[in-house]
Specification:
three-stranded antiparallel β-sheet, two-stranded antiparallel ribbon, 7 strands, binds fe (ii) ion, globular, about 10% strand, mainly alpha, 12 helices
Length: about 475
């Protein structure tokens, strides 16, 4: 791995002068985007960050104080496998694609651009959160997520520059031009245009939306286009920390809420400066439903085409399945027909978005079980839950219809009448924001969240994770 290059990499960049020059031209644009749209206000501070220095399973990460603009963003791919094969679809068993097959060029570029767009988007969504961090530990985790999303952008830009010529370079430029939430040039996917302006949003986002990232990357890690598969495999190792931040962050909020509920006869945690469980539940409903949309339509010819072409597989395609052709299976799902929910059988390949989404839902349920254990451990009988997958959807079969939290088809008027019980209201958001006072003293923590059970990489919670 060449760490001393301007662009650290393990792809022998110095041997490909044309690509190196192109990426070195993109680098200052990236840095100026980072400066304008990256974490606001802390660019000159030393942050105790991990940096990728090796792609091996042992010791790939190096921890030290770094100023974020000096982070070693780079291009790291898992090592190539000798005679890799296309693992599924119509070209199953043929040699993996080392270059972009002409007939799949547009599809592949679209997959890479869509993934790439989410990376800078989330940094933009989170850019003000440093100002309201509940502890230095949390602030450090936020910045770690941010710099790694920046590296994920590099990963996708490398593929665009390296394999798509002129239009790849144009797409790489456009990734720095769109802006989260900007009505004139929004990010591609809607979850990445939603504001993420308080820490409950941040934890729900990293729990649910970064977890979508895990499933998309896992499906692409199976890709027959080997450079994409190799880069996604390494991205997944970074993604795990983002989900850890969300999962444990929410768990700590739930734990603190439970403690405050026990301190107060009427279980009114507002009086004690905590976040009520019903607000936590509404944030779960909001981010879970938006994240489900990221998987695309339930019935999708794109999903069938991507699978047939060997571009995007299923979650753990090699481990979990024996039939990698999936040409004649079917999948039954509920759809709305003439104002009723009815089952419909669709060809399996057209249902692969739904198959991936189902894996994701199972994974989310494990998170809910952990948070409910935090409630049980504090002796409370209240429980949190995931809303039905049809609730509050904007993409696919359920978009344009209204469902209650259990997934029953209801009228628009019924939905509007109950909306404030299910989704965060302006007042809920204002209340949560009112709690977001920064706590930046070493070892101290905000009142609305419990401290973590341990620190990062062997350091205690009482460690100066950011030198302010
Ligand atoms: Fe990412
Ligand atoms: Fe992430």
């Amino acid at each position: 791995m060449d760490l001393n290059e301007r662009i650290p990499n393990n792809v022998n960049l110095s041997e490909d002068k044309r690509l190196q020059r192109a990426l070195e031209k993109w680098l200052p644009n990236f840095l100026s985007w980072w400066h304008d749209m990256g974490p606001d206000g802390f660019q000159e501070k030393d942050v105790w960050l991990r940096t990728a220095i090796d792609v091996g399973s042992e010791g790939w990460a190096h921890f030290d104080y770094v100023k974020m603009p000096e982070y070693r963003w780079g291009i790291f791919l898992e090592p190539a496998q000798a005679d890799a094969k296309v693992g599924f679809g119509d070209n199953y068993g043929r040699p993996a694609y080392q270059e972009v097959p002409g007939e799949f060029r547009n599809a592949l570029r679209r997959i890479i651009v869509t993934q790439g767009d989410t990376e800078p988007a989330s940094v933009e969504q989170q850019r003000q959160l440093g100002h309201t961090c509940p502890s230095l530990y949390d602030m450090r985790n936020l910045f770690q997520v941010n710099v790694e999303e920046g590296r994920h952008l590099w990963a996708m830009v490398y593929l665009l520059h390296g394999y798509f010529g002129r239009d790849g370079r144009d797409e790489a430029d456009a990734l720095l031009e769109r802006r989260s939430g900007n009505p004139d040039k929004p990010r591609i996917l809607e979850a990445f245009n939603q504001p993420c302006d308080d820490w409950l949003n941040f934890f729900a986002f990293t729990m649910f939306t970064d977890r979508d990232g895990k499933y998309q990357l896992s499906a692409l890690a199976e890709s027959g286009f080997e450079p994409l598969a190799r880069t996604c495999r390494f991205m997944l190792t970074e993604e795990a920390h983002h989900m850890f931040v969300g999962d444990t962050g929410l768990s700590r909020v739930v734990k603190r809420t439970a403690q405050l509920m026990k301190q107060n006869e009427s279980e009114d945690v507002r009086a004690l400066g905590g976040i009520p469980l019903d607000i936590i539940q509404k944030y779960i409903n909001f981010w879970f439903s938006y994240s489900l949309d990221l998987f695309g339509g339930e019935i999708s010819s794109n999903s069938a085409d991507f699978f047939a072409a060997g571009l995007k597989g299923r979650f753990k395609e090699q481990e979990q399945y024996t039939d990698h052709i999936a040409a004649d299976g079917t999948f039954t799902m509920m759809v709305v027909e003439n104002g009723k929910l009815v089952p419909r059988e669709v060809p399996l390949r057209n249902a692969l978005n739904e198959v991936l989404r189902s894996e994701y839902v199972k994974d989310c349920e494990k998170g809910l079980a952990r948070w409910n254990k935090a409630l049980a451990d504090e002796g409370l009988s209240e429980r949190l839950h995931l809303p039905n997958i049809r609730f509050h959807r904007h993409v696919g079969e359920y978009a344009g219809h209204y469902f209650d939290i259990e997934g029953r088809l209801i009228s628009k008027a019924e939905f509007e009448g109950k909306k404030a019980d299910w989704l965060p209201t302006v007042e809920d958001r204002e209340y949560v924001r009112s709690l977001m006072k920064p706590v930046t003293e070493v070892g101290k923590i905000a009142n609305w969240i419990a401290p973590p059970t341990s620190g990062i990489k062997g350091k205690p919670f009482e460690f100066e994770y950011v030198r302010l």
